[in-house]
Amino acid sequence: MHLPVTIIGAGLGGLALARVLHVHGIPVTVYEAESSPTARAQGGMLDIHDYNGQLALEAAGLTEQFHAIVLEGRQAMRVLDPDGTVLLDKADDGTGGRPEVQRAELRQILLDSLPAGTVRWGRKVSGTRALGSGRHEVTFADGSTVVTRLLVGADGAWSRVRPLLSAATPEYTGTSFVETYLFHADTRHPAAAKAVGGGMLIAPSPGREIFAHRESGDTLHAYVALTRPQDWFAAIDFTDAAAATARIAREFDGWAPELTALITDGDTAPVLRPHYALPTGHRWDRVPGVTLLGDAAHLAGPNGEGANLAMYDGAELGKALAAHPGDVEAALTEYEQAMFPRSAGVATFDGGEDPGIDSEYNTAQGLIDMITETGR
After folding, report:
1. In the CATH scheme, what architecture does the domain 172-277+355-374 have?
2. pLDDT band, very low/low/confident/very high, at 368 (cuts 50, 70, 90)
3. Does 40 show up as a binding residue in the annotation?
4. Any known ligand binding at 103?
5. Is 207 helix (H, G, I), strand (E, B) or coil?
């Protein structure tokens, strides 16, 4: 017999696990702090990789639904020097293995694949504690509790489940993003739209970069990366959008105007996204009845692997539980022994929410190294 599974967190990883469990007839309940599926924006685009994210969706039986939301042409990439010189202009020829989708649409596919009532909304966890014999109690902000014999923390960077397994906490990596949107870009922001092209833009430079995606609906989503201490950002009043924009833009004085327009011409107030990470190779000793997946287990950088790894973790854990009916510990051991080296093998850069910056970031890092070495 399969034990009912309690999942904390209805992100992509937790939902992938819930869906694979449902496919195998294993009872599952997901508790989510957000009040509804639309309580907040879900971030930008994600490239879903053929070697992990797509395999998770296949295990979930959702490949057809996934292909239906792919944004065609978005695997194109342009790399520009700060002065606007085009260093790379790569078209999307349809052969790439990392198609782009909107995160919110992908999450909705997973939600729609679960029976009504699987996700319990508005259930913010305030704490967890061990009861012995593999049982754990979860306490919610409203004072209510649930007791479970199989608990999975899929609750992200600041997981309330992680302390049951590990004393590790995320630390600031030294770099943050400042996020902006430009709407109706082709007509209202033509120079920036041309610079971005049909897919992704990277403008690398040591200690400061500009990234942008062309999302659906003629929207440009820009991420300005700055390597600065937290107190540097704390001195900026992000409640004053104009002042914050001007301060960030000053860090890019002398850059091509079509690039700085992604900062100065934003149609939304700039949003600060500090980056955090768990120690590389984070792991724990086996604790009966509980495990972690995704950022709760291996918070790392926006290298395109965060969401993919979370879904793959969820699918692999679901498959392991299905393969070991009546032996939870065998399933959790099998899952963790594969998950630890898998996550440790991914290069790190930051943490927090994966904002949609995909693995082309590694291309930018190579260009940054080149620029540094040549003194450009």
Report:
1. 2-Layer Sandwich (3.30)
2. very low
3. yes
4. yes
5. coil
CATH of domain 5-71+99-170+278-344: 3.50.50.60
Give φ, ψ of 277 to 5 degrees.
-150, 150
pLDDT at position 376 over 60? no
Cα 238 from Cα 260, distance rounded (Å): 18
93 is in an annotated binding site: no
* Contact between 290 and 136 (Cβ < 8 Å): yes
For the whole model, what pTM was predicted? 0.91
Sheet of 125-132: strands edge to edge? 125-132, 135-140, 145-148
- In 3D space, the residue among 68, 273, 105, 268 whose CA is nearest the CA of residue 185 turns out to be 268
Alpha carbons 340 and 351: distance in angstroms, whole number: 17
Say how far apart CA 174 and CA 275 lie, in whole Å.
7
Domain ranges of the chain: 5-71+99-170+278-344, 172-277+355-374
Is residue 228 part of an annotated ligand binding site?
no
Q: How many CA atoms lie within 13 A of 29 on its CB side?
A: 15
